[in-house]
Request: fold
Amino acid sequence: MQTKNKSIIAAILLVLLLVGGLITGFTQKALPLQFGKEGTPKVAVVVKTLTGDVFQLKMAEAARDRAIALGAEAEIYQAGGQTAVNQMVSIIEDLIQKQVDIIIISPLDRKAVGPAFEEAKAAGIIIVLMDQGADGQDYATLLATDNYKAGALAADYARELLADQGKILVVEGAPGSEAGDRRRDGFKENVVKGGIEIVGSQSGMWTTEGAMKAMENMLQAHPEAELVYSCSDVMVAGILEAIKNAGKEDQIKVISFDGSSVGIEFIKAGKIMATMAQYPVRNGVLAADIGLGLWHETISADALPKYIDTGTNLITIDNADEALKESF
Reply:
């Protein structure tokens, strides 16, 4: 077992060295490592859905596969939808009864999971968050894109495209989504400068159909809009369909969020102007490393920052081909 612990330490150190320049906290404070607990931990990876959301799928698979590679038992659980909050809470409660050791999770609603997290922590379960934050202090750390910062970068590019003059629509994520709210707020609070105005903002519910409906409603009320900001690539197809049906393909520019291969292909096809990159595999790998490091006591919980920024990047036609190599 000493050999196994050494392998875990080596893996964690390698990941931290590779991405340390992108991760807030680790560059300022090294993680104390020591030999500790032996055994085979049980890891549960919990996400919203594995259907129609490649980001969640890749992140979950990366966390599971990394945990297995480091000697753990690991399984993926899905709530079954972008708004299946009650189902996610039930999954957490079931995992407590199953006495898993580590829960790696992307919460659907930052408030709803709070009581279940409190119960899990009381049962000695380590909780590591991916992509979405949660209220309270019952989790070890959150690994995610700085969604507010990425939204602000998207706002800067929108102002550049519109030369600080124009009307904008926003297609939001599902209500209660911490990541979606931060992406929305980062954009809205930084784009309204000069002669720019946000004339409409509605939820697309993280779906093609929801985004299409929201876009149709806003275009009816504001046919003069010149740019739309989507809080996720998963909604872009619906947005583009609504724009096409309204005959405004030459009028409205689109900026999105995720950096998925779908979003990047839309850029290369001239359908959208940009998408903000995220790195789901990086999120999943680091979440597994940290969760297992905490369980094996090779990482000190006191040294972990509560939030770890896994990075972002503005993808446009200028860097689309290169970005496609790291997309999901």
Q: What stands out?
A: The chain has eleven helices and twelve strands. The radius of gyration is 20 Å. The longest helix spans residues 2-19. The CA atoms of residues 123 and 149 lie 35 Å apart.
